[in-house]
Specification:
The chain is α/β, with parallel strands linked by helices. It has 13 helices and seven strands. The protein has helices spanning 18-29, 45-55, 96-102, 105-121, 146-156, 171-175, 179-193, 214-227, 244-249, 253-262, 266-274, 282-288, 293-304, and strands at residues 5-14, 35-38, 61-65, 128-131, 200-202, 231-237, 277-279. Strands 1, 2, 3, 4, 5, 6 and 7 form a seven-stranded parallel β-sheet that branches. The chain is globular, with a radius of gyration of 19 Å. It starts with a strand and ends with a helix.
């Protein structure tokens, strides 16, 4: 019997650095993560892409559309060199708010196309797309690029990491004012454009929380497995192996090492099995989650009516 609860364990930031690549490759090769998304502008992109190309369709790799470069001492520029996408030093903006305020839509479109092209030219056949740091969502200023993003995904017949519904037990997503109403409109647009979406997204804090330990982090994530709703849910991790140089640069590095450890942890693997959860990929999303365009038109008609 097929499990009615399926989880995409997606490794973000593939290609960011050697330590991230090493962890992500290990998890994908062992089948402990189900997909990863690759950063075309990042310094270790070529290494990640070379491995992904050799795997072919054995792994699920997406495009991690990247418009920010947030770590002082470890930064990267855009592929197109557009002035509105870069700071005074020639790097992508260091935070989401700076990107939203300065980025011009035409430059975002060209850069997005360039990143898709770079992944394709590297020989990686991608299965989906998502967004580094949520810069395209408009969460900081309201200047969203989701309409453009969904059009670009539609043109490539790719699913996109969003979610059809907010899981009420996800404290972060449920706390965003007006999120339910805004999400409904975006989902209708995705359906109209034929862009498949997962049912839910489960978030968790990016940094180590005050008083948090590996044991408490593991306990929270294991507990969430037992509470997952039916359907296809994604949660993301940013795994990395220990690296002293990156520890000095990346404030969240300890959490990244925890996430690498977690996906190999016998307690976490037992919880997955015990909760009756099957790992899924975005190929499942592409196959099962496309919705009726007529239904989307009718939904848009109700909004306008």
């Amino acid at each position: 019997m097929t499990s009615r609860k399926r989880l995409i364990l997606n490794c973000d930031d593939f290609g960011q650095c050697r330590a991230a690549n090493e962890a992500i490759i290990a998890l994908l090769e062992e089948g402990l993560a189900s997909s990863a998304t690759i950063m075309a502008p990042a310094p270790a992109f070529r290494e990640a892409a070379q491995w992904a190309r050799r795997q072919g369709d054995r792994v699920s790799i997406g495009a991690h559309l990247t418009f920010t470069s947030e770590f002082p001492g470890w930064r990267w520029g855009s592929l197109t060199g557009a002035a509105s996408l870069q700071d005074a030093e020639g790097f992508l903006h260091p935070d989401v708010e700076s990107f939203e305020r300065r980025a011009e839509a035409r430059d975002v479109k060209r850069e997005m196309e360039a990143q898709f092209r770079a992944v394709r030219d590297a020989g990686v056949r991608i299965t989906h797309a998502d967004n580094h740091m949520g810069s395209l969502y408009g969460l900081a200023t309201g200047r969203s690029h989701l309409q453009l993003t969904l059009r670009e995904c539609s043109a490539r017949r790719l699913p996109f990491r969003l979610f059809r519904r907010i899981w009420e037990q996800d404290e972060f997503l449920a706390s965003i004012a007006g999120a339910e109403k805004t999400l409904g409109k975006v989902v209708l647009l995705a359906d109209l454009l034929g862009v498949p979406l997962p049912d839910y997204l489960v978030s968790h804090p990016y940094h180590v929380e005050p008083g948090e330990t590996y044991a408490s982090f593991k306990a929270i994530l294991c507990a969430k497995l037992y509470e997952l709703p039916e359907g296809i849910t994604e949660t993301y991790v940013h795994p990395a192996v220990p690296d002293r140089d990156m520890e000095r640069i990346v404030p969240s590095w300890e959490k990244r090492v925890w996430e690498f450890r977690l996906l190999q942890d016998d307690d976490f693997l037992y919880a997955l099995r015990d909760a009756g959860i099957a790992l899924a990929t975005y190929r499942d999303v592409a196959r099962e989650q496309k919705r009726s365009r007529l239904g989307a038109l009718m939904g848009i008609g109700k909004l306008l009516g």
